[in-house]
C-alpha cells in the first residue's frame, strides 16, 4: 500500500469542515435537520471532532469535522486528520465546500500520513481499509502524495529493527530506491574503505560482523547539485564506552538521518525536480569486539584532520565527517547532513523540533518559512564561534566528545563544519521518533526536517519556484 487519494467518484460522501461558530444558523452549510442532529449529539466542533450525519433511511449522508479554535490548530499539527480513524473503514469522502488553502493542504497531507501502519511483524493485526479522501479542488495532489510516500519510507526504515535493518539491508533498500528512479549507485565496503580513504567510517564499523560501507547515489543530469548526507548507524551499542541497556532500546533509530534523506530523495525524484541529486549514507553498526576503536585513540580523517576519540559513543559525527569531506570535494550548490546525533538536542528542544545549523541567514529564513507552511517544525541553533576551543583537545586537531557536557549539539555541529568548506552547508540534529501517538504521527519512526527542506529548496539551490 502507498499513500494515494481516492479517485473522484459519485459515491464519495460529503465532508464538512465546521468552525465552532457556524454549527447552526444562517452561516451553517448544513440543513436544519443536520443542525438539529449536531445539537442533539452534543457536537462542539473541537479540532478533529467527527460526527456522521444520517440520511432519511438510516444510512450515512455525510460527516462533519470540527475545525476547533485557532489556538487549538496552532498547538496541534494535523489535528483534522483525527477524522480518519473516526470514519467508517473503506468509506470515500470529498470536501463539501472550499476551505482555506493552508487548511486544505494540511488536511490532505495529514489524511495520507494518518493512514500509515507498520504491520511487517503483525500482518494479522492489520486494520480494515481506512477511509479515503478525494483530492480537494486546487490541491497539488501528486506533490502531496510524493511527500507522504517519502515519509512512509522514512518511517518504515526507522521502525524496522536492527536484526532486519543492518548495513546489508540498508544497502538493499538504498539500491531499490535508486532502481525505482534510474539513479546510479556505488558502494565502498569493508577494508576497501581504507584503500579509498574513508578511514573513520571503517574505524566505527570494523568491530561489527556486518561490514561498514559508504552508499553513494546519483540522480539527474542538469541543474544545481544538492548533496544529502545521512547518518546510517544501524545500531549503536556505544562501543567500548557502552550504553546502559535503557540507552540501547531506541538505537534501531540511530540510522534516522539516513532514513530521512532517503525519504526526501524519493520525494525529489518522484517529483522530477530539475536538480542533480547525490545521496551519501555511511552505513555501519557501532559494535564491540577485539577490533573496536578505543577511548583516546587518534584517527586520521579523509580530510587529513586528526581526531582524538574521547568517547566511542560519539561515533555518528565520525562517519558523517568522512562522508562530508567526500561531498565537499565536488562543487555542490548545497550540502545537507541529517543525523540522530546528540541527546543534547533533545534536552534543548524536545522530540518534536528539529534543530538545525547554518551560517546563511537567507537559507534559515527560507527554511523557517517552509517549516511553517508544511507543519514540519525546525529551530535554528547557533554555530557559536566561542565554543570552537571546546572541540580542540591539543593532542589532535579535533575532539569527538568534549568534556563538561555543555552545548553538546552545538559542538557536534561545529565539529562537522570543520569538514565542509561549502558556505551553503546545513546540518540537522533530528530525533527521528515520536514517543507517543499523535495526529497523523503514530508512535515510532518519524521524518523531521525533510518537508521543510523540500519547501525551502528554491532558496537553498537558488532556483525559481
From TrEMBL:
GO terms for biological process: proteolysis. Gene3D superfamilies: Leucine Aminopeptidase, subunit E, domain 1 (3.40.220.10), Zn peptidases (3.40.630.10). SUPFAM superfamilies: Macro domain-like (SSF52949), Zn-dependent exopeptidases (SSF53187). GO terms for cellular component: cytoplasm. Residues 311-318 form the Cytosol aminopeptidase domain. Keywords: Aminopeptidase, Hydrolase, Manganese, Protease. GO terms for molecular function: manganese ion binding; metalloaminopeptidase activity. The keyword GTP-binding does not apply. The keyword NADP does not apply. InterPro entries: Leucine_aapep/pepB, Macro_dom-like, Peptidase_M17_C, Peptidase_M17_N_1. Pfam families: Peptidase_M17 (PF00883), Peptidase_M17_N_1 (PF21337). Belongs to the peptidase M17 family. This is Leucyl aminopeptidase family protein. It comes from Szabonella alba.
Amino acid at each position: 500500500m502507498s499513500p494515494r487519494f481516492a479517485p473522484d467518484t459519485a459515491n464519495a460522501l460529503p465532508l464538512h469542515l465546521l468552525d465552532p461558530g457556524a454549527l447552526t444558523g444562517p452561516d451553517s452549510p448544513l440543513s436544519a435537520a443536520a443542525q438539529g442532529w449536531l445539537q442533539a449529539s452534543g457536537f462542539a466542533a473541537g479540532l478533529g471532532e467527527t460526527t456522521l450525519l444520517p440520511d432519511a433511511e438510516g444510512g450515512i449522508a455525510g460527516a462533519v469535522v470540527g475545525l476547533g479554535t485557532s489556538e487549538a490548530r496552532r498547538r496541534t499539527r494535523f489535528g483534522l486528520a483525527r477524522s480518519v480513524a473516526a470514519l467508517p473503514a473503506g468509506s470515500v469522502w470529498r470536501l463539501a465546500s472550499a476551505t482555506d488553502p493552508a487548511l486544505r493542504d494540511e488536511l490532505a497531507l495529514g489524511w495520507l500520513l494518518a493512514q500509515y501502519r507498520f504491520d511487517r511483524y503483525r500482518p494479522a493485526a492489520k486494520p480494515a481499509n481506512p477511509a479515503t479522501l478525494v483530492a480537494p479542488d486546487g490541491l497539488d495532489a501528486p506533490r502531496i502524495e510524493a511527500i507522504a510516500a517519502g515519509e512512509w519510507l522514512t518511517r518504515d526504515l526507522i521502525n524496522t529493527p536492527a536484526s532486519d535493518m543492518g548495513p546489508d539491508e540498508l544497502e538493499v533498500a538504498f539500491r531499490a530506491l535508486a532502481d525505482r528512479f534510474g539513479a546510479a549507485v556505488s558502494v565502498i565496503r569493508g577494508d576497501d574503505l581504507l584503500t579509498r580513504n574513508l578511514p573513520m567510517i571503517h574505524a566505527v564499523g570494523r568491530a561489527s560482523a556486518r561490514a561498514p560501507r559508504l552508499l553513494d547515489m546519483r540522480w539527474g543530469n542538469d541543474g544545481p547539485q544538492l548533496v544529502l548526507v545521512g547518518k546510517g548507524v544501524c545500531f549503536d551499542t556505544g562501543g567500548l564506552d557502552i550504553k546502559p541497556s535503557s540507552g540501547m532500546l531506541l538505537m534501531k533509530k540511530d540510522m534516522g538521518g539516513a532514513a530521512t534523506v532517503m525519504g526526501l530523495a524519493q520525494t525529489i525524484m518522484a517529483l522530477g525536480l530539475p536538480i542533480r541529486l547525490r545521496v551519501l549514507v555511511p552505513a555501519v553498526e557501532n559494535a564491540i569486539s577485539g577490533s573496536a576503536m578505543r577511548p583516546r585513540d587518534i584517527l586520521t580523517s579523509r580530510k587529513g584532520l586528526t581526531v582524538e576519540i574521547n568517547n566511542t559513543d560519539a561515533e555518528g559525527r565520525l562517519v558523517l565527517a568522512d562522508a562530508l569531506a567526500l561531498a565537499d570535494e565536488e562543487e555542490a550548490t548545497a550540502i545537507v547532513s541529517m543525523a540522530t546525533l546528540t541527546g543534547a538536542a533533545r534536552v534543548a528542544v524536545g522530540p518534536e523540533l528539529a534543530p538545525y545549523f547554518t551560517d546563511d541567514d537567507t537559507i534559515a529564513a527560507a527554511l523557517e518559512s517552509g517549516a511553517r507552511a508544511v507543519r514540519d517544525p525546525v529551530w535554528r541553533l547557533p554555530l557559536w564561534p566561542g565554543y570552537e576551543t571546546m572541540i580542540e583537545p591539543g593532542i589532535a586537531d579535533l575532539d569527538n566528545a568534549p568534556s563538561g557536557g555543555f552545548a553538546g549539539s552545538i559542538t557536534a555541529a561545529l565539529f562537522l563544519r570543520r569538514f565542509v568548506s561549502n558556505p551553503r552547508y546545513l546540518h540537522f540534529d533530528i530525533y527521528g521518533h515520536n514517543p507517543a501517538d499523535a495526529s497523523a504521527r503514530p508512535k515510532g519512526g518519524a521524518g523531521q526536517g525533510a518537508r521543510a527542506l523540500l519547501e525551502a529548496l528554491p532558496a537553498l539551490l537558488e532556483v525559481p519556484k
